[in-house]
Specification:
77% of the residues lie in helices and 0% in strands. By secondary structure, it is mainly α. The protein has one domain: Leucine-rich Repeat Variant, CATH 1.25.10. The protein is globular.
């Protein structure tokens, strides 16, 4: 697994890091290395298809693994993608942050309710309504 996490192919590295960070039996050193690679990917990826794989990884790993300013910055930027699928993935990641009282993530979700793509708009609206409902119940 370590070889794949160090892969120069971003897609393979994203998948491997996600697998390690979800694995409760992974050694601490493996997880730390995966976190470092994940942070690096968040800063260097330019290709939209590579970003897509990383965004899926961010949706699946435990929140504590994405509770990092570099990763958060990557997630915030997903909403600006030219690909609606990537913006939609970004909404799911932003919802994870917003559910933990991240006001910037909630603001970006609200902005997405006016997206040019109907799927993104509807998804963002549903997420904002759910978050606001959960906040009013608390």
């Amino acid at each position: 697994m370590r070889r794949f996490a160090r892969s120069t192919e971003a897609r393979t590295a994203s998948i491997a890091c996600g697998a390690l960070l979800r694995d409760p039996n992974a050694r601490r050193q493996q997880k730390e290395e995966a976190r470092l690679i994940l942070r690096k990917l968040c800063t260097v990826l330019k290709n939209e298809s590579d970003k897509s794989e990383l965004s899926v990884t961010l949706m699946m790993i435990p929140f504590d693994e994405i509770n990092d300013e570099i990763v958060k910055g990557f997630a915030y930027d997903l909403i600006n993608s030219t690909r609606f699928t990537l913006r939609t993935n970004g909404l799911a990641v932003l919802e994870r942050y917003a559910s933990r009282r991240d006001e910037e993530a909630l603001r970006l979700l609200r902005v997405a309710t006016t997206d040019s793509n109907e799927i993104v708009r509807k998804s963002a609206l549903a997420k904002v309504k759910r978050l606001e409902s959960n906040r009013s119940e608390s």
